Amino acid sequence: MKRQAYRLIASRLGLALLTLLIVSAIVFAMTGLLPGDAAQEALGQAATPEAVAALRHQLGLDQPALQRYLQWLFDIVRGDFGMSLSNSLPVSELIETRLPNSLMLAGLTTVVAVPIALAVGIASAMHRGSLLDRALNLLTLSTVAVPEFLIATIAVLIFAVNLHWLPALSYLSSVSSFGDLVRIYAMPVMTLCCVLVAQMARMTRAAVLDQLNSGYVEMAALKGASQVRIVLRHVLPNAIGPIANAVALSLSYLFGGVVIVESIFNYPGLASLMVDGVTNRDMPLVQGCVMVFCAAYLALVLMADLCQIISNPRLRQR
Amino acid sequence: MNRPAQPSIPHPDTQIYDEAAPEAVKRSRRARRGRMSWFGRLGFALVGFCLLMAVFGPMLAPYKEGALASPFSFASYSWAHPFGADYLGRDMLSRVLIGARYTVGLALGAAVLASGIGTCLGLVAAVSARWVDEAMSRFFDALISIPSKVLALVAIAAFGSSIPMLTMIAAVAYIPGAFRISRSLAVNLMTLEYVLVARARGERLFYIARVEVLPNMIHPVLADFGLRFVFIVLLLSGLSFLGLGVQPPNADWGSLVRENIGGLSQAAPAVLMPSIAIATLTVGMNLLIDSLRRHAGVGQGGQK
């Protein structure tokens, strides 16, 4: 029955929301409760007790922790992340200006990385054990382990310093044509793609291999179907769920990867905003950015889950 | 006790890269005799070299820490300075050798903490009552859906970045992954007959966890420890690269890259050498784990 699928989807959605709620509690505990008294810190050692008490009252710090958490949560649900301490703008406004840039970077990276990774993963699964497979294994294994800033510095060295093809920093304001767009995004996207492709290709290979070991593939081979036909016609439809999962899991790497890449290339995205927030100990800004990151991560995982449910005919039809 | 072995929210940290594949690779005669592949040996050599450098590096450094050895900033490779000089003209080879202690030592400490605590908690969750398991899994599921770099940034914003704090932060960021892996291994083991027999004998849960379960999952847990080490090296050097990790005057390899990033336009070895040092360590470790996993069947969920 289709009801079963709907119920499964609803339970996944509920689980994701519950997780987000726990995340918000953890984030609030780390940033709002544990680091000590924000009022004392803001006023310094020489502050009079009256001034501290006044500021505590003004910031709402004299209320019990649970009440502060609920108030904070309620504000966030309404889209109000508070005021940034370092530049006294609403945090939601700052996030609004930076988020599209980060989404653009992530989107372009996905568009470039996914087809390459799928091709590499499927190719090495089809030729498992061959020289190609082992070479790709070594290559992806090494790439996964290399820090992003090494790839980025080597890319800058080759393409900006030696060849003068690309600018070393990303100034989005100078984008006026498609050529500019390619030139500016080339290096950040390339850096992110390296690690992403490696990880995704390994997981895709594993997903396809898993299917290749199953009975129906042996049956197809006994019927005399060609290797290409087996993979395209028999394996891939069955592997869509695991592959979607692999893609989503790898894409979640982007949330960590952009932190480094945006800072290196001076790219005005959400992650570099957050790094600024951390440097200035601007808690409302940090809280807002973290919640956006975590919500995005959970949305991605949820989407992979839905792909898996929808691609499973036992749940879809009947 | 039929509880799901797989967590409800998947995460890349909890996959030993391609654990899903029960590989039907023909084992070579060499692998069967228990010797490592060529790449495994290379990985072992690279990791061993980095560990030795962390221990003996400061003694081998040709110049004192902070000595201004070269008149030129960002000097290139030479006999006096094989790794060139940094932005102040300090000898880069000495700086890298001294920094090894921070990069390797911090990551090792954090990885031991993360794997130790994660494995213990995973065992506890697997052997305790259903609701304890459920609550712990739910909590770690939430913690794991904060990307580790982002979690580390929040923690640094809240608590600052002293060296003990960095170790703690890195450990906390990777406990959930270790917890998940050991829990799912232990849940599978708990259904096997010899554990049922032990339960029927009336053994205490602690005894079952220590004697029946832990020894049978130690190989995948060790492989996972190696991976956590790689993740933590990358996390800590990433943080240092952002200027939020190890603070001057101390410098790990990540901070060395940051300090000398100004020399990038001159292709100074001061930028490249510390990055290559990090890559040597992490790539070596990955090769080592991959080869161990291949011929010991480690990392495939223990059974299949």
Task: List its traits.
heterodimer, A: 318 residues, mainly alpha, 13 helices, globular, B: 304 residues, MetI-like fold, 11 helices, disordered C terminus
**Broad CATH class of chain B:** Mainly Alpha
* Helix count, DSSP H or I runs of 4 or more residues of chain A: 13
Shape of chain A: globular
The N- and C-terminal alpha carbons of chain B lie at a distance of 19 Å
Flag low-confidence runs of chain B.
Answer: 16-33, 298-304
User: Can you count the beta strands of chain A?
Assistant: 0
State the order of secondary-structure elements of chain A, H for helix, E for strand.
HHHHHHHHHHHHH
Question: How many helix segments of chain B?
Answer: 11
CATH superfamily membership of chain B, which one? Answer: MetI-like
Which range does the strand content of chain A fall in?
under 5%
Secondary-structure class of chain A: mainly alpha
Within the CATH hierarchy, at the fold level, what is the topology of chain B?
A: MetI-like fold
Portion in helices of chain A:
over 70%
- Give the DSSP E fraction of chain B (strand runs of 2 or more residues): under 5%
**Gap from first CA to last CA of chain A:** 5 Å
Radius of gyration of chain A (CA) equals: 24 Å
What structural class do the secondary elements of chain B suggest?
mainly alpha
Helix content estimate of chain B: 55-70%
Quaternary: heterodimer
Number of strand segments of chain B? 0
Order of helices and strands of chain B: HHHHHHHHHHH
Give structural notes:
The complex is a heterodimer of chains A (318) and B (304). Chain A has 318 residues and is mainly α. Helix content of chain A is 79%, strand content 0%. Chain A contains 13 helices and no strands. Chain A is globular, with a radius of gyration of 24 Å. The longest helix of chain B has 36 residues, at 92-127. The radius of gyration of chain B is 22 Å and the shape is elongated. In chain B, helix 3 packs parallel to helix 6, helix 7 (193-201) runs antiparallel to helix 8 (205-213) and helix 10 (253-259) packs antiparallel against helix 11 (269-296). The model of chain B is unreliable at 16-33 and 298-304 (pLDDT under 50). With 304 residues, chain B is an all-alpha fold. Chain B has helices spanning 29-32, 38-60, 92-127, 130-144, 148-159, 163-190, 193-201, 205-213, 218-241, 253-259, 269-296. Chain B starts with 28 loop residues before the first helix and ends in an 8-residue tail after the last helix. Chain B is built from eleven helices and no strands. At the A-B interface, helix 1, helix 6, helix 7, helix 8 and helix 10 of A face helix 4, helix 5, helix 9 and helix 11 of B.
